[in-house]
Write the structure tokens for this entry.
Amino acid sequence: MCAFEGAEPEPPAPGEPTVTLRDIASFRPSVPSGEMQPAGWAVVGLPANFIGQGSVETRSGSLLGRPAEVRFHPVAYRWTHSDGAVVHATDPGATWDELGVAEFTATPTSRTYTASGRYTVDPTVVYVAEYRFDGSAWRWIDGTLSLAAPRMDVLVGEFDTVLVTGDCTAIPDGPGC
């Protein structure tokens, strides 16, 4: 059963072969991308926001010796963090601005680090696929295809805010300087 919008895969038309993910190996969606907020860094104890980017794409070519199209639909997003945490979502996430929330607000795709250090994040987009021969009806292919986006480096640190009464460069002995 296909996990996309509750659709049931149609059986192949009479005389049409059953197509598998292995059969469509030469058809691939573009390498997905990802981003994070803040870009490349995070603060211990505050959420860093991760956004995945994958889109519906159609590829044309030869499938089992026949002209065909294969269409890929992103259905899930995964961020694997080097500290062992994994964040799963069916939505790619969005920037804090797009969500209308303040910076460092927790989102369904965010991660809060508990220790300073250098981390990596491996974003992945999970796709389902469908195919059609010669303009026939689209037919789902059982299974999913996971495609990695480029790895992200994250520098996590502890930050303190300091209130000062003026310009510490001009008055280095001022309160808070």
User: Anything to note?
Assistant: The helical segments are 96-99.
